[in-house]
């Protein structure tokens, strides 16, 4: 025992009162503050001092509450210990019982770090957890503190509560090791490779934060090619939020989802559930009809009997009459099924009714779908600034903000850019030294570009558009001459093929699609060396090009877009004259009319339509490249400049609109 003053030792052994509060025991001496007649107790005890609260936390003896004040006399010749006449801290009546609580945020982390170090050295471990051939030493109290599964195991009446070695079944050893590491370190890596085993194991051990991290990771990986698989996985493991998110994603990206292997492998009930949803996002009911035919043909012999059940959910009355006659009626699967023929007759009769009578018909097949509207962003691809660049910018309409996204694999300007089947395609163009025939595809979910089959001809300053799930590359310049040729690409086969050529060679041509027809607007004729006012129309049903009404003025490098079923030709140039005028083509009357001029002269600008507005992006004014963007409102016949410019001026950039990745 330390050499305490005799009288102090004897008093503590007898638990006599010290000062105005009881001393709980000898071991608390170093935790009390007091005064000693003739000197400080610090000098006598040579121990650290602490203002204790006299509670059970002060020492093992426990006891009184309030301040513990130790007073003592000199041990030598003293008749006893007397209380101090004054408390160390004087408090006013209104400040009595004040306390200070100190929280050390690093305390828990330090404690767990030490416990993990002890575990790694196999010190104080009292249980071994086994899975497969992996054995893990651990501390029961740590496992129980972090996992309700282990807490129930160690505190209940099960044999495992006393066992030194416990086997965990249905979990592989490496996964269990990662989870026990997490219990000690609060760190874990979730990857594509381990998430499918990590989530169920975390669920078993009731590590709900790890389980949620796995769900968040899977949500971030949603893609048209995997969303149905993730939905099924979430359903099996009762991840309700993830299940809802994956299902909503599949509905919102149905045109791309229906092309994947996961869709073709769905059960009948799963397909019915998906295509019957009012929230299915499709530009036309044609996509739903095509999805049904694809699913049946995937395993035709076993699925043919389900044709009528599936067609019950296809809203045939909402399809165009021409499509009903030319496609649905000619489909062999429809012809050979009486119930399906009845659905077709119902749709035909619907089209024969006056509009007011159609509105009175209420059944699931005449009800328009009401998809959840996804926010959209505008992608501006490559361009000249002043040389060909790789940069790609994304404009968020809701936040009025430009962001840089994944660059093109190589420099590209004067390319054709379109959105098709959930991806952005950059077709042909000029790389700074050569006209190219290569094609790059952008995946907005992965923020990644990949290359696909190249065109058959080199083309820059071409026009590009999508019609009936085919990407058309129209005209352009191959490095020596303007082109009249046109080729089309099928993403289903990854192949390019030629279609009928235009009647006129056209480089710097603008294109657009209206009512199932492809239009080539203006451009430059290399043979006559003139800018063009002529316009041609392509009919895919006949594979023929025919002239329609000329524009009112010659335009090469005009920005062409489609808004509300009409074709807009914006800006462009006629020789050195750069225009800001705009004219609009009405296919119904085969006429052009002038609308309001843009705020700035522009040629070689990108154009897109979003939410009833027509956007014209960048271009050049004849002397410099433009970073500004303006949009046209057909209701007010006015052009307005966006408040925020691109990061750099671009001409010959391609523009597309995609759904914002969630």
Give the number of domains.
3
General shape: globular
Count of beta strands: 35
What are the low-pLDDT stretches, counting only 5+ consecutive residues below 50?
1-81
Pathway: Protein modification; protein ubiquitination
Subcellular location: Cytoplasm, Cytoskeleton; Cytoplasm, Cytosol
Subunit structure: Homodimer. Component of the BCR(KLHL3) E3 ubiquitin ligase complex, at least composed of CUL3 and KLHL3 and RBX1. Interacts with CLDN8.
Domain BTB: 125-192
Keywords:
disordered N terminus; 3 domains; Neuraminidase; 20 helices; Serine Threonine Protein Phosphatase 5, Tetratricopeptide repeat; 35 strands; 4-stranded antiparallel beta sheet
Describe the protein:
- By secondary structure, this protein is α+β, with helices and mostly antiparallel strands.
- It contains 20 helices and 35 strands.
- The strands form eleven sheets. A four-stranded antiparallel β-sheet has the order 10-9-8-35, with no helix packed on it.
- Helix 2 (about 40-45) links the parallel strand 3 and strand 4 (about 70).
- About 40% of the residues are buried.
- Residues about 1-80 have low confidence and may be disordered.
- One of its GO terms (cellular component) is cytosol.
- It comes from Heterocephalus glaber.
- It is found in: Cytoplasm, Cytoskeleton; Cytoplasm, Cytosol.
- Homodimer. Component of the BCR(KLHL3) E3 ubiquitin ligase complex, at least composed of CUL3 and KLHL3 and RBX1. Interacts with CLDN8.
């Amino acid at each position: 025992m330390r050499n305490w003053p005799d009288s102090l030792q004897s008093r503590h052994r007898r638990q006599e009162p010290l000062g105005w509060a009881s001393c709980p025991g000898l071991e608390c001496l170093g935790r009390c503050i007091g005064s000693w007649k003739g000197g400080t107790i610090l000098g006598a005890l040579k121990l650290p001092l602490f203002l204790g609260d006299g509670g059970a936390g002060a020492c093992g003896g426990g006891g009184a509450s309030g301040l513990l004040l130790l007073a003592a006399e000199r041990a030598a010749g003293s008749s006893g210990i007397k209380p101090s006449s004054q408390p160390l801290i004087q408090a006013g009546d209104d400040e009595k019982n004040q306390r200070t609580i100190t929280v050390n945020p690093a305390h828990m982390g330090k404690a767990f770090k030490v416990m993990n170090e002890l575990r790694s050295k196999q010190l104080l471990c009292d249980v071994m957890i086994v899975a497969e051939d992996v054995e893990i030493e651990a501390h029961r109290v740590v496992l129980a503190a972090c996992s309700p599964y282990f807490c129930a195991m160690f505190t209940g009446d099960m044999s495992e509560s006393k066992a030194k070695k416990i086997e965990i079944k249905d979990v592989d050893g490496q996964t269990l090791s990662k989870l026990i590491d997490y219990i000690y370190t609060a760190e874990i890596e979730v990857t594509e490779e381990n998430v499918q085993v990590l989530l169920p194991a975390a669920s078993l051990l009731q590590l709900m934060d790890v389980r949620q991290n796995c769900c968040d990771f899977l949500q971030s990986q949603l893609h048209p090619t995997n969303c149905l698989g993730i939905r099924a996985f979430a359903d099996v493991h009762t991840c309700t939020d993830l299940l809802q998110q994956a299902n909503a994603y599949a509905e919102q990206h149905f045109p791309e989802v229906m092309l994947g292997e996961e869709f073709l492998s769905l059960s009948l009930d799963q397909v019915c559930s998906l295509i019957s949803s009012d929230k299915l996002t499709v530009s036309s009911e044609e996509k739903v009809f095509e999805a049904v035919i694809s699913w049946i043909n995937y395993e035709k012999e076993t699925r043919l009997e389900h044709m009528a059940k599936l067609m019950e959910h296809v809203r045939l009355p909402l399809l165009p009459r021409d499509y009903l006659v030319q496609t649905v009626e000619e489909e062999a699967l429809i012809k050979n099924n009486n119930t399906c023929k009845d659905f077709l007759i119902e749709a035909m009769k619907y089209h024969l009714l006056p509009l007011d009578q159609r509105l009175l018909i209420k059944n699931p097949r005449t009800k328009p779908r009401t998809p959840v509207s996804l926010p959209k962003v505008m992608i501006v691809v490559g361009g000249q600034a002043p040389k060909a660049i790789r940069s790609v910018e994304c404009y968020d309409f809701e936040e009025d903000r430009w962001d840089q996204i994944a660059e093109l694999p190589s420099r590209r300007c004067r390319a054709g850019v379109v959105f098709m089947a959930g991806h952005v395609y950059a077709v042909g163009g000029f790389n700074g030294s050569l006209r190219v025939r290569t094609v790059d595809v952008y995946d907005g979910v992965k923020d990644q570009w990949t290359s696909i089959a190249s065109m058959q001809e080199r083309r820059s300053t071409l026009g590009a558009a999508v019609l009936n799930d085919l990407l058309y590359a129209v005209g352009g310049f191959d490095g020596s001459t303007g082109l009249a040729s046109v080729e089309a690409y099928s993403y289903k086969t990854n192949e390019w093929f030629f279609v009928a050529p235009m009647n006129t060679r056209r480089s710097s041509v603008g294109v657009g699609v209206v009512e199932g027809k492809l239009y080539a607007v203006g451009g430059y004729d290399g043979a006559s060396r003139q800018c063009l006012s002529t316009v041609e129309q392509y009919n895919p049903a006949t594979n023929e090009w025919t002239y329609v009404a000329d524009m009112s003025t010659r335009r090469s490098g005009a920005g062409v877009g489609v808004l509300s079923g009409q074709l807009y030709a914006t800006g462009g140039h006629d020789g050195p004259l750069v225009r800001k005028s705009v004219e609009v083509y009405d296919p119904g009357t085969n006429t052009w009319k002038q609308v309001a001029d843009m705020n700035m002269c522009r040629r070689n600008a990108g154009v897109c339509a979003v939410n009833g507005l027509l956007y014209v992006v960048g271009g050049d004014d004849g002397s410099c490249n433009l970073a500004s963007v303006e949009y046209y409102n057909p209701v007010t016949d006015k052009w307005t400049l966006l408040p925020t410019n691109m990061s750099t001026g671009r001409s010959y950039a391609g523009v597309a609109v995609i759904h914002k990745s969630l």
